[in-house]
Specification:
Keywords: Oxidoreductase. The protein is of the alpha/beta class. The chain has a single domain, classed as TIM Barrel (Alpha-Beta Barrel), CATH 3.20.20. The protein is built from 12 helices and 10 strands. The model has no long low-confidence stretch (mean pLDDT about 95).
């Protein structure tokens, strides 16, 4: 297992992140977390809204300092309480305190904003996040499922005001869902943010899972799945390993939900899979994607002398 820096921080996170949303029992969680840790994995990702995931995870952590424990807040904890959801200070404090109790820890390494809340001012969210960092209850912060302009504005405010900026973003990303390449991935690269991809296997669609209803897939989805399986057969690896390798080769950290040690072993074994350029081209041809305006338009302008004159810009 290799490690990557988390955004513009010194925190080392493993190149394979473990999603804990689907862990249901302590026995199941202990087997999966132990297998993951033995392979060198250190990033455990959960959320306040993932049922009993936090409590199950808290019961099996053991060497707490060995792991980078991440949780999220935003989603409602009580549908009858209008303040039990959202990105405002009251929900942040209430959700975080509950998460700490359930995880049986004094702090979390990463607290993600789970979802953009258009009703809460960005200034309130970033100041409240900075406060819990200064209080020692959170070490780093990130944001999930938010527009690129919001993330950029939030980090600019944090930089200007001396607050803790987002170090990473979490997005849905796979060969069957590439739309984050339009704005979010370029933004993350420009701001030096780590990117964690949830559903990197397309909800199991790209793996060899028998529970996938092939009849329900679109023609495009079937084409991508078939190409993933062809490449896997040619390379002598599993379809899941190919799909995850493609995500990693985009500079993105796959966040994978695994429920058995066997699934952990398969994902870890796949870390050695490197897709040759020809295989990458075939996979992306099966999953055509257009960045659209303004990216394509700007690229066209830069390729001609019309915008910036003749000559090579280095």
């Amino acid at each position: 297992m290799r490690y990557r820096l988390f955004g513009r921080t010194g925190l080392r996170v493993s190149e394979l992140l473990l999603g804990c949303m689907t862990l249901r029992t302590e026995e199941e969680a202990r087997r999966v977390v132990d297998a993951y840790a033995e392979a060198g994995g250190n990033f455990l990702d959960t959320a306040s809204a993932y049922g009993e995931s936090e409590e199950v995870l808290g019961a099996v952590l053991g060497r707490r300092e060995r792991f980078v424990v991440a949780t999220k807040y935003t989603l409602s904890r009580d549908a009858d309480d209008p303040n039990a959801g959202g990105n405002h200070r009251k929900n942040l404090v209430g959700s975080l305190e509950r998460s700490l109790r359930r995880l049986r820890t004094d702090y979390v390494d990463v607290l993600w904003v789970h979802l953009w809340d258009r009703r809460t001012p960005v200034e309130e969210t970033m100041r409240a996040l900075d406060d819990v960092v200064r209080a020692g209850k959170v070490l780093y912060v990130g944001v999930s499922d938010a527009p690129s302009w919001f993330v950029a504005r939030a980090n600019t405010l944090a930089e200007w005001r001396g607050w803790t900026p987002f170090a990473g973003v979490q997005v849905p990303y796979s060969l069957v869902r590439r739309d984050v390449e339009r704005e979010l991935l370029p933004m993350a690269e420009a701001l030096q943010l780590s990117v964690a991809a949830w559903a990197p296997l397309g909800g199991g669609m790209l793996a060899g899972e028998t529970r996938v209803d092939l009849a329900s897939l679109s023609a495009g989805e079937r084409a991508v799945r078939e190409e993933v399986h062809r490449v896997a057969a040619e390379m002598g690896c599993t379809a899941a390993q190919v799909a995850l390798a493609w995500v990693r080769q985009q500079g993105v950290l796959p966040l994978v939900g695994m429920r058995t040690p066997e699934q952990v072993a398969d994902a870890v074994a796949g870390l050695g899979v490197v897709l040759p350029p020809e295989a990458v081209a075939r996979l992306e041809a099966a999953a055509p994607f257009e960045r659209g305006f303004p990216a394509d338009f700007i690229a066209e302008c830069e390729a001609s002398a019309f915008a910036f004159g003749s000559g090579v810009v280095v």
